[in-house]
Design a protein that fits this description.
The complex is a heterodimer of chains A (about 250) and B (about 350).
Chain A lengths: L1 E12 L2 E7 L2 E3 L3 E5 L6 H9 L6 E6 L2 E2 L5 H6 L2 E3 L12 H12 L14 H13 L15 H13 L5 E5 L7 H12 L6 E5 L3 H7 L2 E6 L2 E6 L1 H6 L1 H13 L1
Parallel strand pairs in A: 4-9, 4-10, 7-8, 8-9
Antiparallel strand pairs in A: 1-2, 1-3, 1-5, 5-6, 10-11
Helix pairs in contact in A: 3-4, 3-5, 5-6
Chain B lengths: L2 H12 L5 H16 L4 H23 L8 H16 L6 H23 L4 H21 L1 H4 L24 H22 L2 H11 L1 H6 L4 H27 L9 H14 L5 H20 L4 H15 L1 H29 L6
Chain lengths: ~250, ~350
């Protein structure tokens, strides 16, 4: 059974159709990639999945449960977390506080007002685990705004991972990361636990083909091709889309 | 727990530690009871303004909600405390204070849903609108509120049945200061809790906050309600210490003054409202004795100067002074420690 599924998902902004009849099925434990040229509607799909946008039509199922009407934070609680294409971090908080926020919410103590931050050992233990996994210990007490860009991208993933998602949506995780810091980031993505299902949105074809076991191609807001990497790589229509885009550019 | 875990825990808790500056601040505040007995009336006003400013700092400095209508809660609770005392409904002042605060909190909860929507500008308009409406209602129902003449015949019973409000305001000031301190302790706890951290996250980035599972809307409703409670406590204190309540508790001036206090003192570090209130009140008092008619001109000038000098430069001076004080205080503290048995560093 698919862990995350969309049926006939559609989003219109006034007269503009950003996504139309998107029916995706992501298998449990998959490394699924969603690719497509600029403006194909990839980020719209992510925003629909996570609840930032409400669809005009269609349904979204997470582990068989209809989550179409749920708020973003409720979807996180059910096991879906995301990263952002452009860093969405808290510039004045430390990486430690970032992770702490996510862990506290997941353990249901994020609304506690009578307890001091850092006084619940269950929360600190999980924070330590994540800090160590993502090798953030050396920068954990620095203001996020002053961290190198690569570390910030890493923190993007660490914060999402701290929500202990069943499904993790990575929106162009390597975008803009300088070559020198790229390796650490990709290694981290490779090392994500197998039981976590990953949906990767990416421009970088090398990354997509080395990482994904299934690829969906989105063009003009509709699903174009959906299949194993070899099939997608061979598909002449996909080549045409990408070559066409390059020819235009 | 391992060493990293201890490290994590202590880093997280570090912010909440009491600094020498804070201890010195409160020691001095309580010492003022004995140091300045002749100034108790203006000090009472200052303590009340400080508590009121603290309530605005909670929503502005920590949650990023700007408001021009905090007087609505101040005024509602002010009238509530007045009516409770006048008709003998709740005669013990501390209990009446709590009841009035809860009344303000209920209004805060109900109106919070209006404030959640929209941008800063809409929030300014909505909060202003609510307080204007309340002011007009108080004016209209003058048989209850006393209208433009104010609420007459408020007689406040002794605090806890023992301490009578005297005409020099000695007990009134001690009472106000204790209430301010207790409220401050609660606010401080809130600010350094996971809940308080989530507010700072929401202020920093609401989109990401939702994406880590924070129920943004409910957190804002909660803090708006809590802030309304403390604004209400301040309003009720004013009524109790003056045995009077008039329409100006609901005026736009009062909300606007409050923003000035926070601009002077700074937001988001708890002491902005308190320091701002002290500077504002004593500046006002000092200028008013120099030039009774035109004091607002000078207040305006001071504000323009503060903005022109720039917050950062101003804060760097304050940090320098604070560091100096901290060094001085730690030397004072370390001296007896070195005399006694060797304690840890």
């Amino acid at each position: 059974m698919a862990i995350l599924e969309t049926r006939g998902l559609e989003k219109r902004f006034g007269g503009i159709i950003a996504a139309q009849n998107v029916s995706l099925a992501i298998e449990k434990g998959a490394r699924h990639a969603l690719i497509g040229p600029n403006g194909a509607g990839k980020t719209t799909v992510i925003n629909l999945l996570t609840g930032v946008l409400k669809p005009t039509a269609g349904t979204i199922l997470l582990e068989g449960r209809d989550i179409t009407a749920l708020e973003p934070h409720q979807r996180v609680a059910l096991g879906m977390a995301r990263t952002f294409q452009i860093n969405q971090l808290f510039p004045d908080l430390t990486p430690l506080e970032h992770i702490g926020l996510a862990v506290s919410e997941r353990l249901g103590s994020g609304g506690d007002w009578w307890r001091l931050v850092g006084s619940k050992s269950q929360v600190t233990e999980e924070i330590v685990e994540i800090i160590e996994r993502f090798r953030l210990a050396d920068v954990m007490h620095l203001r996020t705004a002053i961290l190198p860009y690569g570390k910030q991208r890493l923190l993007e993933i660490a914060v999402a991972f701290a929500c202990r998602p069943h499904v993790l949506l990575l929106d162009e995780p390597a975008a803009g990361v300088p070559e020198a810091e790229r390796h650490e980031l990709l290694a981290t993505i490779e090392a994500l636990p197998a039981e976590v299902t990953v949906l990767l949105i990416e421009h970088d074809m090398d990354l997509v083909f080395s990482f994904a076991d299934r690829i969906s191609v989105l063009v003009n807001g509709t699903l174009f091709v959906d299949g194993a990497p070899e099939e997608v790589a061979r598909d002449p229509r996909v080549k045409a889309v990408y070559l066409g885009e390059e020819a235009d550019a | 727990m391992g060493p990293v875990a201890d490290d994590v825990s202590s880093y997280l808790k570090r912010r909440a530690r009491w600094s020498p500056f804070e201890i010195a601040f409160w020691v001095f505040a309580f010492a003022s009871i004995w140091l300045f007995p002749g100034k108790h009336l203006i000090l009472t006003e200052t303590a009340i303004l400080a508590l009121f400013a603290l309530s605005l700092d909670l929503i502005l400095g920590y949650a990023g909600i700007i408001s021009l209508g905090q007087a609505a809660f101040f005024g509602l609770a002010g009238y509530c405390a007045g009516l409770l005392a006048k008709y003998g409904l709740v005669t013990e002042p501390v209990l009446a204070l709590l009841v009035s605060g809860v009344a303000a909190a209920i209004l805060g909860f109900v109106t919070s849903f209006l404030v959640l929507r929209g941008s800063d500008l809409t929030r300014l308009m909505v909060t202003l609108g609510v307080s204007l409406m309340l002011g007009e209602l108080a004016n209209r129902f003058s048989d209850i509120t006393g209208g433009a003449d104010g609420l007459q015949g408020v007689e406040v019973e002794p605090i806890l049945g023992r301490f009578r409000f005297d005409m020099f305001g000695h007990n009134g000031y001690t009472y106000s200061l204790i209430v301010l301190f207790v409220c401050f302790l609660i606010v401080r706890r809130i600010v350094y809790s996971p809940f308080g951290l989530s507010l700072r996250a929401i202020k920093g980035n609401a989109l990401r906050s939702a994406a880590v599972g924070i129920p943004v809307k409910w957190r804002l409703v909660a803090i708006y309600t809590i802030a309304a409670f403390f604004a209400g406590i301040a309003g009720a204190l004013l009524t109790q210490t003056t045995a009077f309540c008039s329409l100006d508790v609901l005026s736009l001036d009062r909300s606007a003054d409050l923003l000035l206090v926070l601009i002077i003192g700074g937001t988001g570090y708890l002491y902005g409202g308190l320091i701002g209130a002290v500077i504002y009140k004593f500046l006002q008092d000092w200028i008013a004795t120099l030039t009774p008619q035109y004091w607002q001109f000078w207040i305006g000038l001071v504000l323009v100067v503060i903005v022109l000098i720039g917050r950062e430069r101003f804060e760097s001076w304050i940090t320098a002074i604070r560091l100096g004080l901290a060094r001085f205080a730690s030397r004072l503290i370390s001296r007896p420690a070195t005399l006694g048995a060797g304690e840890g560093p």
